Amino acid sequence: MGKTLSEKILSQKSGTDARAGDMVIAAVDWVFVQDTTGTLTIRQFRESKKTGLASPERTVIFVDHAVPSPNRQFSNDHHFLRQFARETGCLFFEPGSGICHQLVAEKLASPGEVIVGADSHTVTAGGLGAFATGMGSSDVAVVFALGKTWFRVPESFKISLTGRFQKFVSSKDLILHLIGTIGADGATYKALEFVGDAVSHMAISQRLTVANMAVEAGAKVGVFPSDHVTKEFLRKQGRGRNYVALHPDDDATYEQTIAIDISKLEPMVAMPHSVDNVAPVQTLAGAKIDQVFIGTCTNGRLEDIAIAAKILEGKKCHPNVRLIVAPASRKVLLDAIKAGYVEILVNAGAILVPPGCAACLGVHQGALGDNEVCLSTANRNFKGRMGNPEALIYLASPATAAASAITGEITDPRGLVK
Amino acid sequence: MIFTVMKGRAHKFGDGISTDHIVPGKYAHLRSNLPELAKHVMEDADPTFLSRVRPGDFLVAGKNFGLGSSREHAAVVIKMVGISAILAKSVARIFFRNAINQGLPVLICDTDMINDGDEIEVDLAAGTITNLTSGIKLTFGKIPEVMLNIMKEGGLIPYINKYGDFKL
User: Fold this and answer.
1) Is A300 on the interface with B (CB under 8 A)?
2) Residues A48, A168 within the same domain
3) Do A223 and A314 belong together in one domain?
4) pLDDT digits (tens, 9 = 90+) for A217-257
């Protein structure tokens, strides 16, 4: 009997014939923390009797959630993390490098790897064919020490994608549509496996967006097969030799199959206060907004900034709207400068903030006021997420966000741009 | 952890309580100061929770409790304010592991049978939940053996310190 992607990867990494429902102990290729989870992880690690990191060259600390530090507490946390990196020789990414998940995709992840991070959006690397999942600090501390962890091998949902996106429709609209269909707990403990002939036409940036939000349906992983697009991406990042061909078997067993013709999708929006509260943008057109946020591990990549720049070129943001743009990494920022996107966006009135998580988690750089409404390209719109339980957050694609920044209200980009 | 019978009052919440409700991201600068962070537990779901909770009480919720971020601080602060177990219709994956890793039991049961303020008795060894206020008895879903063993040691770090490795 054939295997799903998750069963294949976990078989390889556990040295067993791993099948859905089995408990396995798998070797971990990369383990990481960031600045809001790293301090607790290190304290847990030090409470264990284990003395050293299992693999310092595969243990990574990213400082991305509050950069540059907004207060003394974060500065002290960053210092604590930096000291730990110096003591142990693990990899360390200073503020300004970018968001952990973007850097994992740019510099570390390869198909077939197991990646564990103390951040729920670790699932992002599934876009490159990795079995990547978020865990809490205790679990990650033990991976620091042992280089392995236990998993229940997940049952998989086969998400079969056909067709091509319409203009100004993107993979953000696809994943919002899927989460709206199955619900915020529709794939709890499961793997989402994305296959079908549409996949080979999706850039890695688009796959990363989809995998990133698998956790918003409760999934353990969101994983893509690897192909020529993956191979080319890795080659451009200088990791071509890490390419491994990875496909599910034709006779693999799936718990369910969901077929989506992506050519039929339209721009979608998740409404407050849950990610599965999804509606087509047209049904919300005209709703007033105070802030637009383009960035995050979901949609802060060059392609996302490019579409925003295309829509905002020669235009101005609506006077009642603040537009905040946060590139996902230093590389994204540099590439956006070279391509002229930064100049277009700043001319349109955008506030450019440093590579990092920025306004997404409510600590700084765009926290919302009472009753304010934000249209964000992030992955979460929970009550209080952007620093204020009295504020409202809508989630959408970069194209919808850019179009809405111009009009000051939620706007279908297909109607605004010819 | 010794599996004794636990008794306390229910604090009832609805569906979809995220880790942002439990420990809001705006307090992320307090994550190295857990006693201070714990003062904001459940703040964005019910700002009066902290003033009402007593050691031994139960946190009772609907579907998908603890969805969202991987921040284990959510489980840590719930335990710090004295909650002895979480009872929910379903729980998000990362939070489930985090709670067990902190030695905080998470029991999946039909929480429609529990109202805010009800007196509850939980017998982990027997696998029963009794609503002492209504007299209704509930059962809870099976916890995987590896997690039960972690819980018995009071959490993952004590478990690893005892066994040195995972035992599946």
Assistant:
1) no
2) yes
3) no
4) 999 999 999 999 999 999 999 999 999 999 999 999 999 99
Tell me which residue in B29, B76, B93 faces A218 most closely, judged by beta carbons. Answer: B93
Which residues of chain A lie closer than 8 angstroms to B94, CB-CB? Answer: 120, 134-136
| Among B50, B133, B64, residue whose Cα is nearest residue B96 | B64
Task: Write out the two tokens for A377.
Answer: 């390209």
* Domain finish residue from A223, A246, A262: A262
B21–A383 CB contact, under 8 Å: yes
> Is beta strand A256-261 parallel, antiparallel or unpaired with respect to A59-62?
unpaired
In contact, A229 and A203? CB cutoff 8 Å: yes
Query: Which one of A262, A291, A323 terminates a domain?
Result: A262
CATH code (residue A218)? 3.30.499.10
- Report the SS3 class of residue B7: strand
By C-alpha distance, the chain B residue nearest A367 is B26
- How far out from the chain centre does Cα B91 lie? 10
- How do the pLDDT tens digits run along chain B, 168 residues long? 557 899 999 999 999 999 999 999 999 999 999 999 999 999 999 999 999 999 999 999 999 999 999 999 999 999 999 999 999 999 999 999 999 999 999 999 999 999 999 999 999 989 999 999 999 999 999 899 999 999 999 999 999 999 999 988
What is the least distance, in Å, from the CA of B165 to any CA of chain A?
8
B143 touches chain A (CB under 8 A): no
Residue spans of alpha helices (H) in A127-227: 137-146, 171-182, 204-212
Nearest to A268 by CA among A257, A253, A254, A279: A279
Contact at 8 Å (CB) between A10 and A220?
A: no
Q: Which of A47, A151, A382 to mutate to test the interface with B (most CBs of B within 10 A)?
A: A382
Regarding whether A178 and A36 lie in a shared domain, the answer is yes
| Domains contained in chain A, number | 2
A267 alpha carbon, distance to own chain's centre? 19
In this structure, the answer to whether residues A313 and A405 fall within a common structural domain is yes
Rg of chain A in Å (alpha carbons): 20
Domain residue spans of chain B: 5-163
> At the topology level of CATH, where does B5-163 sit?
Aconitase; domain 4 (3.20.19)
Domain range holding A276? Answer: 270-416
Q: In this structure, are A346 and A409 located in the same domain?
A: yes
Chain segment A98-151, per-residue pLDDT in tens? 999 999 999 999 999 999 999 999 999 999 999 999 999 999 999 999 999 999
The pTM of this model reads 0.97
Q: How many CB atoms lie within 10 A of CB B134?
A: 13
